Amino acid sequence: MDSHYEVEFTVRGDDFLAAGEASNQIKETLIMLGVPSPISRRASIITYEAEMNLVIHSGGGSLRAVITPEKLTIQATDRGPGIPDLHLAMREGFSTAPDRVREMGFGAGMGLPNIKRNSDSLEIESEVGKGTTLTATIFFHEGPVDRR
Amino acid sequence: METGIKIIEGSCKGCVNCIKSCPTEALRVVDGRVRILSDLCIDCGECLRTCREKALGLDEDDWDLIRSHGPTTLMADPTFCAQFSHYWTPGLVRKALASLNLKDLFDETAKAFDLAAFATARQIEEASKESLPLISIYCPAVVRLIQVRFPELLHRLVETETPLETGTLLWRKETGSDEGVILVTPCSAKVMLVRGPVGREKSTMGHVVSVKRLARDLLAAGPKVDGAGLEPVGSRWLAWALRGGESRHIKAFSKKNITTMAVSGLRNTIDLLQDLELGRLKGVDFVECRVCDLGCIGGIGNAESRFLSELRLSRQPIEWAVTERERAVLSDLYETGIWKLEQPIQPRPRPSLADTLDEAMKKLKTMQAVYAELPHIDCGACGRPSCMALAEDVVRGEGEITDCVFKLRERISVLGEEITALSGKLPHAFHERKHTK
Fold first, then answer.
1. How far is B383 from chain A (nearest CA, A)?
2. Cα B172 from Cα B52, distance rounded (Å)
3. Is the Cα dihedral B36, B42, B46, B49 positive or negative?
4. Measured between alpha carbons, how far is B119 from A55 in angstroms, rounded to an integer?
5. Do A69 and B278 touch (CB under 8 A)?
6. Least confidently predicted of B44-58, B103-117, B414-428
7. Would you say B166 and B339 are in contact if contact means Cβ atoms under 8 Å apart?
8. Which among A21, A65, A16, A68 is positioned nearest to A42, based on CA atoms?
9. Helix (H) / strand (E) containing B7
């Protein structure tokens, strides 16, 4: 019933060297659990983009993955500046990343669209000045992961 | 599943030096004997370099046995021609081999390497911007590393078959021969081109021996050869023995200016693939990775020092300008598709903890609990490369928590205290008897 597995990581803001570590660990966990490769690939895109958003925009936050036999939920929470216009933020190529971030090759405005494309459902709650919570879900459609 | 590495039973002293060298944590030393987890092994050969007891070796065929069976045809790796100070061009090596009654396939090899470079240049030209950079498949250890650790990068691998295989195929097509061909390999990874190729069902080469083994024979025989009457042999393929040679070759066939990146060494390879996975290699068209230092000449199966080989190769006169005639011949061969991998390369994910997600989650929780108990210093004394690896082995039923010397000592100390406590509880009568004696 309450069978689930959970991992949580703290992501530091502006730490571009460590960026990708949390999503990597989540990926390793999914592999250990035997989540099929197409699903773990989608999950790793979502976690990576969400982690990068935390690093670039929020000043840091947490990244959490919850796995149950039915679905995988990825949640990114921060107390950053919030997203003033969510509709605009979802548009491909729209970015508020500063130039120094763009020079490193990040902040191309593809983060949120990429997350949306790879998740079965996506919820974003954001309040300007308070922070943002992003919840992306992937359902294991073909019944709970059964391999071989 | 097979690996390109052979364990020499009886030589292993159980020293655990090798387990830390493995980039995929595929080695265990249990009950004083080394074991390879073939699901994880990428055949890179790092463990062979660290083993002082020579308990790990290249899984090659018995050269003496092969020779005793009559005429022998060799598909030699480009590194082979960089092993000798006195036979320093393919033409001279050919003469030396012929004097030992060994047949080379240098002409077909030269053509196959040209064809591979030609075909890869075409793939780069035809690829969409998002699918660049493409990745070389020439180093089989890199291919396996990607299958095991970077499955997201599999779609970037070029579809070009290794020219060592294509060269053999070209020779078979031209001569109609089904005679056995022996691959002369510089490393454990290329052993697998014969034993368990990736991207095709079966190799058309039947056997494999190391460059070292063959070079030793040739040096021992020491045939005297001179430059008289040498036939010209193409030499671009020799460049592939060095890091960057493949990229240079591809550029020679590219219609436009392409950007390539070449790294060698296992750590550099992993770092570069990580950069690639994180999307940091924008503007790069082709990536060439070799797990051995300096390229294939750094392979564990070579006889000569890699530094001397490098020096020798850098002095080889190589004609990079491609003639129109060459291009026309290659274009025709390209159309036949002989250069192409038979099958797409599949991921090789590490085995999950259990068959159902539910069971796997339970085991993962237990694994975390076991790990929390361990000292987290990754000392290797248990025969596993890390405390996490021991925790994993414990939940997979392939180890005990007391394999950890620290846990064992803890248990002994607890047991010792219990014994002391018990010894204080000797029956009264026993004390009495002791005094009266």
1. 21
2. 41
3. positive
4. 41
5. no
6. B414-428
7. yes
8. A65
9. strand B5-7
- Per-residue b or e along B100-118, where b marks 16 or more CB atoms closer than 10 Å to that residue's CB: eebebbbbbbbbbbbbbbb
Specify the residue for token string 């070579």: B302
d(CA A30, CA B271): 22
Question: Residue B167 corresponds to which amino acid?
Answer: G
Partner A, chain B 120-159, Cβ-Cβ below 8 Å: 151-152
Closest to A51 in 3D by CA, of A39, A62, A43, A36: A62
Q: What is the dihedral of CA B207, B211, B217, B219, to 10 degrees?
A: 160
Quick check: B282 and A34 CB within 8 A? Answer: no
Q: Find the CB nearest A147 among B355, B362, B365.
A: B355
pLDDT for the residue numbered A146? 45
Centre a 10 Å sphere on the Cβ of residue A132 and count the other Cβ atoms it contains: 24
Q: From the candidates A5, A48, A51, A102, which should be mutated to test the interface with B, based on the most B CB atoms within 10 A?
A: A5
Domain segments of chain B as ranges: 5-58, 63-224+235-336, 357-436
Q: Does the domain made of B5-58 have the CATH classification 3.30.70.20?
A: yes
Q: How large a percentage of chain B has pLDDT more than 90?
A: 78
> What is the token pair recorded at A124?
């974003």
Chain B contact set for A35 (CB, 8 A): 357
Candidates B352, B354, B353, B387; CA nearest to B370 is B387
The string of pLDDT tens digits covering residues B65-100 is: 998 887 799 999 999 999 998 887 899 999 999 999
By the 10 Å C-beta count (0-12 exposed, 13-18 middle, 19+ buried), A148 is classed as exposed
What DSSP line would sit under B101-142, residue for residue? Answer: TEEE-HHHHHHHHHHHHHHHHHHHHHS-GGGPSEE---SHHH
Are B96 and B107 within 8 A, CB to CB?
A: no
Q: Can you give the pLDDT at residue A111?
A: 83
CATH assignment of A5-139, among 3.30.450.40, 3.30.70.890, 1.10.540.10, 3.30.565.10: 3.30.565.10
Exposure of B431 in the CB half-sphere (CA atoms within 13 A): 6
Evaluate the omega torsion of the peptide bond into residue B133 and state whether it is cis, within 30 degrees of 0: yes
Contact of B358 with chain A, judged by CB distance below 8 Å, is answered with yes
Residue A29 with chain B: CB contacts under 8 Å:
364
Structure tokens of A108? 């191309």
Classified as helix, coil or strand, B56 is: strand
Contact between residue A42 and residue A118 where contact means Cβ atoms under 8 Å apart: yes
Instruction: Give the start-to-end residue ranges of the domains of chain A.
Output: 5-139
- The domain defined by B357-436 folds into 3-methyladenine DNA Glycosylase II; Chain A, domain 3 (1.10.15)
Q: In Å, how far is A5's CA from the nearest CA of chain B?
A: 6
Neighbours of B435 (CB within 10 A): 6
pLDDT (0 to 100) of residue B186: 97
